[in-house]
Amino acid sequence: MRTERAGRRDERRRAGAFRDQARLSRASIRPLLMTAQTVRDIAADGFRDAIDILSIIETLEASNTPAAVAAVNAAGTNAVAQCVYRALWSRLLVIVTRASARSLS
Question: What gap in Å lies between CA 98 and CA 80, rounded to an integer?
Answer without folding.
Answer: 27
